[in-house]
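[09:14] KT: can someone run the structure on this one? pasting the chain below
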Amino acid sequence: MKKEAKKKLYESTVELLKESDYEDLTVGKICQNACLSRQSFYLYYHSKDEILKEIYFNLFKYTYLDKIEDKQYIESDDFIMKVIDVYEAHATIFITLEKWYYQDFLSQEKQRFLEEVSLREFNNPFIEKYFKYFMISFLTPLHYIMMGWLNGDKKESKQELQSIIKTFVYHK
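[09:31] RB: done, structure tokens below
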């Protein structure tokens, strides 16, 4: 039951963020949409910022961390389209994060990201040793290109965006 309640709150927040800005989101609205009490919310989360961090971490993990050690995959068209699709599907969440100071959030949460990946072995000892720099050099430009696309009303097609990413992130 406990996991179900937390899942309902999480899903309620994701659903509401697809429809409105983070500033308009309240704990009351989250609870009402999840058919749960405010007391239930505070059993699992201290604030709406905390649930947003969890949502972002899960999006980040799904998008990037699952196959980050596979260099061929993260340079593939499939990966680039996955990133584009995730950003497009969760545009309001990413735009909220940008307003919410993405870099500050990432620096606060970087240990959590690094711990998630540190359990893995990399084929490249240089990347393994300097993983945090790899993450910064790879993810920051990719994120900002995606945010430029979302904030620019997605004027470029997904195929054009894929070419932009290949050129400016992968230098291909």
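[09:33] KT: thanks! The chain has a mean pLDDT of 82.
[09:34] RB: yep, looked fine to me
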